[in-house]
Amino acid sequence: MSELKKVDRRKFIYAGLGAAGLIAIGAAAYVAMNPPVVTQTVTTSTTVPTTSVVTTTVLTTSVVTTTVPTTSVVTTTTTSVIKPVTITYATHRWPYEMKDAYERAAALLEKKHPELKTEYIGIPYAELEQKLATILPTPDAPDVVDIGFRLNLIPYFEPLDEYFQKYNVPVDDFINQKTYGGVWPKEIGGDGHYYVFMRVVTNYACINYRKDIFKERGIEDPMEIRQKTGKYPQYKFFDEWYEIIKKCTYERSDGQKVYGYAVPTALSDGYSRWRVEYLPWHYAFGGGIVRPEEEPGKIVVGKEPYLSRNVKVAEFFRTLVKEGLVPLGVEKPKYFDMMGLGLVAQGKEGSWVFARWANLGEQREKLIGTYPNPYYGSGWKYIKEEFAGNGPSITKNCKHKDDAFRYIYYLCTDPEIINQFFVDTLMLPASKTVDLSPAIAKYPWLDAYDYVNKALPTEALYSHHEAYLSINSKNVPIMQKWPEISQAWFEMYQKVILSNENIQDLHIQLQDKLEKIVAL
Questions:
Q1: What is the CATH number of the domain that holds 160?
Q2: What is the model's pTM?
Q3: Between the CA of residue 224 and those of 227, 248, 261, what are the distances in Å?
């Protein structure tokens, strides 16, 4: 296999900003980062009796012409493309705005690099973790899995350090590659190796809001504050932000109720969506299920000082439900549809949610804005608990590991593939060689996501995904308890949101249950 060349550090510039092409890159820059095709080289020698012109046609249809003196030996190198390799590629089958994006990226990769074929496996998001946990330990495991960091699946992924070093991949050029997302941090019991090649930034650290509703309810537009002061407002979670939610809950002149915020309240959303929405707030306030940087190897959800912090956050969300400030029984994708209709004032999601509002046309940028998450008080870095990233991994049972690495390298660095994926999903690329300023000029709401990306603390240990749930991550049996831990938390939080049971008692009961689940 030919050696991959180092990614050029020159900035790749977003230009055009249309569906046909968002990134315009010079040919030299592309060649500098584009590794050569896998080839097979055969060298043959021919004795030429007199001065002559030797013309050799090779399999790739190129012609080699050489003038040689009498009785010299002519060496001809013939290059032929190796038989195509099929990479089995498993990832989300998104139910809404990004339904075909991953498949389209895989198809473009195959078109540009025909020696790498793709067998695409799309798995519904709700079934993703369970199905992968079942198939990854078997010989039928896919070669590449593109879901980002999943703590319980790490034992089935191949460390990428060797490949990064072998092919001189500049890890510094990818956001969060060295912290959460790309590496399994030693601080939470990991081994410090890379398991994910960062492809996109998927932080949830922003609130999406209806600009028209804020104006109607007398709330200064956060994006306008940013334009005036250079900073976004940081609303305090329990008071200022609660008052905004309350103020934005009202009845329109046509009799329709508008809700000030939306969170998952439908059980059909499952623990993944509930966890992504609720649990980061607990960690941000100093609570959570585990705190490996403070209490390694322990469950803390029902122990002080974490218990009182968890209770306060849970009481906040119960209050939103009891006061009718959020819609009940509406699945997460559908309440963003309500937001598009002006029936929900605010929601929390990554930048890709704006693809769901494409039907608003040019009005989208006028109607919907974004600002960083509210916070709990001075000193809290909201990014620390909310920043994430996704990208592909190579499985341990991969049948073509070097070819699989070439495959994920192209996914994460090829400018045309990055361009198409961004246009399809509006997910920010992890590559720091991309200049986002032209994209932000076209899509102003991207600014808040870029703003929080730049605020990422380098000491971040975990984000909205499973890295929270590290108990003693070197112990595989405990890691494999993660689905049970999530399910138990989900069952408890249903009672927080939908019942009148004592919230403190619920957390203490969860503490006992989780200790039994992880007991060896």
A1: 3.40.190.10
A2: 0.74
A3: 5, 18, 21
